[in-house]
Amino acid sequence: MQRMSQLFTKTRREAPKDEQSRNAQLLIQAGFIHKEMAGVYTYLPLGFRVFKNIEEIIREEMNALGAEEVLLTTLQDPALWQKSGRWDDAVVDNWFKSKLTSGGEVGIANTHEEPLTALLTHFVSSYKDLPLYIYQFQTKFRNELRAKSGIMRTREFMMKDLYSFSRSEEEFKQFYEQCAEAYMKIFERMGLGALTYRTFAAGGSFTTGFTDEFQTLSASGEDTIYIDTEKKIAINKEIYTDETIAQLGLDKDTMTEKKSIEVGNIFPLGTKYAEAMGLRFRDEEGNEKPVIMGSYGIGLGRLMGAVVEVFADNRGIIWPASIAPYDAHVVVLDGKEEETAHIIQELERAGIEVLYDDREDKSAGEKFADADLIGIPWRIVVSKRTVEQNQVEVKERSGGKMQLLPLDNFQFSSLNFQ
Ligand code: ATP
Ligand code: MG
């Protein structure tokens, strides 16, 4: 149980004036994040709990694919990036770089194809060493020109990046599809399933022609896509040509234009990085071949921001239960601490995580407004009135549905918890 009186963060009466995006306004007002400077945000205790819940959902789905978790370095060796041609600022235009006191330069993690591919040359030589699926949660630094979408586009952000290393196109393609399914599962678990479209986008290796983005419909999104709701498929505006539409067997008449947020993407990389870094293996016949790769990214902050954008109402944030910072927001009024302690004990016995508004200097109205702003799925109120009736009041944040449960013999499980 977390007492609100003990949280070092506070909610604010007003949204910050210097934020244009709804996600940053609400997350700052409710005390989830702090703006360090433009495009750079700190995750405060409540925000960090949401963040870790998102991370855990992603980790579970990546582990289910048989992927192995690592932590690669933030400081990057320019020599590796020169091999692939991506050290040049004209090629990657948003590098942060720094000088070493001892001479020379280092890069500050932008993405990790080069170092991971180079690393694997130490471990992979035979077909028996493959396939490999390796991922991490690592902070990326990008000198984005504009940082205007709150935590959805920042200059420092946590990415889950996975890289696949396969022996053949078929082996690659099979994993690519499995990973696409795992991505949809992740977004479904976060309540974004119905709103998230697998979207054809430009780029990709010469064999496949496309990359796949996962786009969540939202008016606040920076991207424009065309969706076919029936087939649950979309095309990014960047490649929305008659030729592409025909090639994908889609029909312009059934597609509608929407704004969306790119919450994740997956790329076929072909043999580009394997060739550049010399990542080769001997097949069963003894022939040497380059490894076929793919990369698979999800931005955790972007995803969290998207959830806020999509579900918030005019009173505040609404977290899906799967990533909410706490399960229940218990509000005590009229000095009914003793009765509340009993309720909290019962909740914790049932494995329900509790944020406890025990603040003595706040009115009922202020406490209710904060509960709505913070957006925890269930609000439980113990007051003079409820105690007199031997009840507690339980309110669902999303639908606003109210239920009364008995104070004695209180059982949270008697609620419909879905
Ligand atoms: P975008 O087109 O939005 O700049 P990208 O094509 O650069 O994204 P990738 O480099 O493939 O994206 O990164 C993978 C994922 O990381 C993206 O799908 C997104 O969720 C997240 N991401 C990318 N850039 C940012 C950023 N500046 N801030 C927060 N998340 C980001
Ligand atoms: Mg980008």
Provide structural commentary.
The protein has about 425 residues and is an alpha+beta fold. The protein has two domains: about 1-310, Bira Bifunctional Protein, Domain 2 (BirA Bifunctional Protein, domain 2); about 330-415, Anticodon-binding domain (Rossmann fold, 3-Layer(aba) Sandwich). The chain has eleven helices and 22 strands. The chain has helices at about 20-30, 45-65, 80-85, 115-120, 170-190, 240-245, 270-275, 300-310, 335-350, 365-375, 385-390; strands spanning about 1-5, 35, 40-45, 70, 75, 95-100, 105-110, 130-140, 155-165, 195-200, 210-215, 225-230, 235, 255-270, 280, 290, 290-300, 330, 355, 380, 390-395, 400-405. A six-stranded mixed beta sheet has the order 1-19-18-20-21-22, with helices on both faces. It has a five-stranded mixed beta barrel with strand order 10-11-14-12-13. β15 (about 280) and β16 (about 290) form a beta hairpin. The radius of gyration is 25 Å and the shape is elongated. The two termini are about 20 Å apart. Adenosine-5'-triphosphate (ATP) binds near residues 144, 263 and 298. Adenosine-5'-triphosphate binds near residues 153, 159 and 299.
